[in-house]
Design goal:
Blueprint: E1 2-4, E2 11-13, E3 31-33, E4 39-40, E5 67-69, H1 84-106, H2 116-120, H3 129-136, H4 159-179, H5 187-208, H6 217-241, H7 249-274, H8 279-324, H9 329-344, H10 357-374, H11 385-424
Antiparallel strand pairs: 1-2, 3-4, 3-5
Helix pairs in contact: 1-11, 4-5, 5-8, 6-7, 6-8, 7-8, 7-9, 7-10, 8-9, 8-11, 9-10, 9-11, 10-11
């Protein structure tokens, strides 16, 4: 067994006190059991305190050993046997591979290019009434640009942030009415607005990033309300055939299947109705349905919390579910609907597309995200660690789809311009 000099990297015997290459002095090492922290000797096979095998622990300072070295900090190693820089590098590599995998699923040529700075560059700038009105008139026959006139630059959405702040101020005002003035008439409004803040703001974000500009704000609001209610009805119909019972691991999977299928059936109706082939349209249509689903569901949970736990519980539910809505139903439905549009392509819509592997990959992905979200995982439960990680994953997937959608618009626009030039020759 050997030890590595942390200063020059020379391999030495395990009993060496000094490095014969650079003179580094090795600290006397005290070993501890990774399971309970008790002191152990280097030759021990089992911990004298807890009895656990010392050969089954994670990689420590010595290969396949279930104990750790008290002087390990001197080598710059983490408990997992690699440095902080190595951990960061591994994490970036893992995220990069995940991004590439999602990008491949979209079928669009080119690498993913995510420009977060451009997505928020206009949020904190002043905007005129004319700019706002110009946004609201988009999506009509007169204002929808022809394919050759579409620009595929990264969008600079800003209205969604204003919508978010507006609803946040309204929600705060309603809470003041409830808590300071004991006005119970404000409770229904607080339930609805509290549930609405994040999901509807996300819908506006997807509407602003819909570069084809072919869906009006009226259609967005209509799909949000009607699509949200219809997706809940379809979900309840499915629950009539699929019994979930206890929300254990199996129950969580069933919930993921039922609710994601209920949403995609309704979103698929709007994809068929508009006969769209744009990934960005799929993101927007799915977000509208998912956001409506999320708002009505959260309002229902808030009402139940009010009945059984009072006003404080209602507020807690609204705040927690509102915060976590950044990566929940709205994004899941947006992802699966974008997958359906990818499977559809430029062909007329057909029900068989629900069985297309291109779509099923995205559907299974969101079912997995939803199922893990609901699973009774205790790790980091007090801070909802699992849910926050899943939010981050969903956001990354959406950003990859947004990048792919922009590349698709660029290809469509270039093809249209080329066809127009050929027609004029």
């Amino acid at each position: 067994m050997s030890r590595i000099c942390p200063k020059c990297g020379k391999e030495m015997s395990d009993t060496a006190k000094f490095c014969n290459q650079c003179g580094y002095r090795f600290e006397e090492r005290q070993l501890f059991c990774l399971w309970c922290g008790a002191k152990v000797e280097s030759g021990d096979r089992f911990c004298p305190e807890c009895g656990r095998s010392l050969s089954q622990g994670g990689p420590g300072p010595q290969q396949n050993a279930g104990w750790q070295n008290a002087g390990q900090q001197n080598t710059g190693q983490a408990g997992g046997g690699f440095t902080k820089d190595e951990f960061i590098s591994m994490s970036k590599s893992g995220v990069g591979k995940f991004v590439d995998a999602i990008n491949d699923m979209t079928g669009q040529e080119g690498k993913t290019d995510i420009r977060l700075r451009e997505l928020v560059s206009e949020v904190f700038r002043r905007h005129t009434v004319e700019e706002r009105e110009e946004l609201f008139i988009s999506g009509t026959k007169k204002t929808t640009p022809a394919p050759e006139n579409m620009t595929a630059d990264w969008p600079n959405p800003w209205l969604f942030a204003r919508i978010f702040l507006m609803f946040l101020v309204v929600f705060a005002g309603l809470l003041v009415m409830i808590l300071q003035f004991s006005n119970t008439n404000a409770i229904p409004g607080a339930m609805f607005i509290g549930a609405l803040i994040v999901p509807f703001s996300l819908v506006i974000f997807f509407w602003e990033t819909n570069i084809p500009r072919n869906i009006s704000i009226f259609d967005v609001v209509s799909i949000f309300f009607i699509g949200g209610v219809m997706s809940l009805i379809f979900t309840l119909i499915l629950y009539g055939y699929i019994y979930v019972g206890e929300l254990n691991y199996t129950g969580a999977i069933l919930v993921g299947i039922v609710e994601e299928v209920g949403k995609i059936v309704v979103a698929g109706h709007y994809v068929k109705k508009r006969n769209t082939s744009y990934i960005l349209n799929g993101l927007l249509l799915g977000a509208c349905v998912g956001a409506g689903f999320a708002v009505f569901e959260t309002a229902g949970y808030a009402f139940s919390a009010l009945l059984y736990g009072g006003i404080p519980n209602m507020i807690d539910v609204l705040i927690l579910r509102g915060a976590l809505a950044i990566g929940g139903h709205t994004l899941w439905a947006a992802i699966s609907t974008a997958g359906l549009v990818i499977a559809k392509g430029e062909r007329p819509f057909d029900r068989k597309m629900y069985l297309d592997p291109k779509f099923l990959k995205f559907l299974f992905l969101v079912i997995a995200l939803h199922a893990v979200w609901d699973m009774p995982i205790t790790l980091g439960q007090s801070v909802h660690l699992v849910q926050w990680v899943l939010c981050a994953v969903a956001v990354v997937i959406v950003l990859v789809l947004l990048s792919s959608g922009l590349r698709q618009v660029s290809a469509v626009s270039e093809r249209a311009r080329r066809q127009k030039r050929n027609a004029n020759m």
